[in-house]
Amino acid sequence: MHDVPDIHSIRTLYRLGYSKRQIARTLRVSRKTVDKYTDPEYVVPSEVRMNLRSPRPAPKMDRWKAVIAQWLAEDAQRPRKQRRTARKMYQDLVATYGEAFDASEMSVRRYVAQLKGQAAREAYVPLEFGLGEMMPADFGHALVVLGGGRR
Questions:
Q1: C-beta of residue 108 within 8 angstroms of C-beta of residue 61
Q2: 67 lies in the same domain as 25
Q3: How far apart are CA 109 and CA 86, in angstroms?
Q4: Is pLDDT at 86 greater than 80 in this prediction?
Q5: Helices marked H in 59-146 — which ranges?
Q6: Are residues 70 and 117 in the same domain?
Q7: Which of 47, 57, 89, 132 lies most in the core, judged by the most C-beta atoms within 10 Å?
């Protein structure tokens, strides 16, 4: 599938009177593609394809999600340089639980990234001020020619 700008280019050239063969040669696409996008019945799909409706199951990670979430909460209280990375969390899980821990390092990394991403999306800056607390103003100086004189 081509991007919307490509489709727009094909349709624009077609409206300007170019033949389908010329459009295909100019834009280096097949004539079938040009036929498809110049058809008046064709509508560009607006939804994103390949979107998961529900998260994929992670049976090996389900047992360890609470532990990782707790570690992330603890690390949030620590100084930045003392926090655990996802790799270090994986290594700690293997060292602490040994054979009982059977998930992969990538699963741990993916879950940590997901949790950290949720925390980043929840951040916001409130922009509500009481009356008279905040007012945008510019008290600059400018030279203006007004009525033939400089002011």
A1: yes
A2: no
A3: 5
A4: yes
A5: 59-62, 65-77, 86-97, 105-121
A6: yes
A7: 89
